[in-house]
Design brief:
The complex is a heterodimer. Chain A is an alpha/beta fold. Chain A has 14 helices and eleven strands. The longest helix of chain B is centred in the N-terminal third of the chain and has 8 residues. Classes of the chains: A alpha/beta, B mainly beta.
Chain lengths: 374, 136
Amino acid sequence: MREVAIVGVGQVDFGALAASRQPVHAITLGAQALSQALEDAGLDRASVDGLVTCRLPYDASANALGIRSPNLINGLEGSGRMSGVAVQYAAAMIATGQAETVACVYGNDGRSMGMTYGGEAAVSYGARLAQLQGMASVGASAAMMFRRYQNLYSAPDDALAPFAINNRRNAALNPVAVMRKPITREDYLNSRLVAAPLRLFDYCLINDGGVALILTTLERARDLRKRPIRIAASAAKAEVQDHYWSPDFFYATAQDVAGRLREKCGVTPTDVDVLQAYDNFTPIILFSVEGFGFAPRGEGWAWASEDRIGLAGETPINTAGGHTGEAYMQGWAHHVEAVRQLRGEAGERQVKDANIAQYVCVSPIVTSHVLVGD
Amino acid sequence: MADLTQLRAMMPPLEDWNRPFWEGTRQYEFRLQYGQDGIARFPGRPSDTLDPGSPLEWRAASGRGRLWSWTVMHQNYLPAYADEIPYPVGLIQLDEGPLVVSLLRGDVAALECDTPMKVVFEKVDDEWVLPRFERA
């Protein structure tokens, strides 16, 4: 099996896009991100022989992106859990020799399309029954899980505040973030309830954007422009129900993934220099730090002091601002940030001597990768 | 109060497999679907996907369970419930096992996780009756 590295990253300027208030098209955003990622890697389009799209149709995208006849092509549906899956898919195809250089391209025009991430037409009979009872958003499911967690572990009303504050504090140092203003604990507690106990600042943003990642063999990566970022280990496990829910907040599933990663590459939480945690809602960061062994079970909220998870702390989390500060790019921009931190390209928010990054996504498909600077 | 006209428009299409459930609620009876394995299912399926060809039947259930957790919706996503904002929605684990999502009625101030709950029924019109849950 060949080793695989991420060699190019690209993303649009999320803040500028949000400020422009112009409607945009998802494929256009994906195309802009891909051009940047190619430039970043020092590769031309002709060298790409694999295309994995997400939230974009693969056929129309392939034409628009100028990658018309790749050896690998597929499109993954546009849910956040797919960003980790896309990287695993591309890496596996490269490792087994079915592709050499794969572009993973994501585009999201949720804001332009007026998406609210709640109340959409139900896709299943079960979802229809839930809507009939007034239940109509993933956020409401996260709120229920967090209330149960609070009840089990006596977590206070402001238990999620450190995660919300940390994301916005990091976003303030990120020139392309949508939200550049830090928030205080008081701002957090005063923000309006959306699905109690979750507040506005626990919620991801709704914005437009595009992200692209380019992966190739580690061997090839060593001849390219930037420091190769090796995928040292990656693993996934599904915990799918008819709705977004887990009786133990995905704990056992995350533990299983964490265990297999550790077996594969030997990296433990104390070795991780930056943690990029999927955060459609802030309780998911809490479930992530516990499920992946960074914090004791039931104590993640007390563990997560603003110092500990800040840029100079022992476990810096979501250093670009995450989904509540930088942009809601469904985990894709978390991957970009992991790469930039390991290359030392993160500017004002650079974590000193970052050499190991971990991406974690706690969701009905738990995914995680350990990324190491080569 | 929910907007009954809007609610009526949200009702699912009835087919042979799910009609018995809604016939049940019309008689103020909460039914669960059972296969040959004896395991209760909700909201049920058109056929037994794990044992094709084996019959499924709807049986009256206890209508009782425990509140796994709940949220209070402050954001309005569904026009039918615009006038009920903020309203509580809970996830109830039935005594028979399945999970049911339900708008919560009755005294919600006193709710806690694992509170015993029971089904109540709300008439939408002559054809449709919705189950809801409240403290037992």
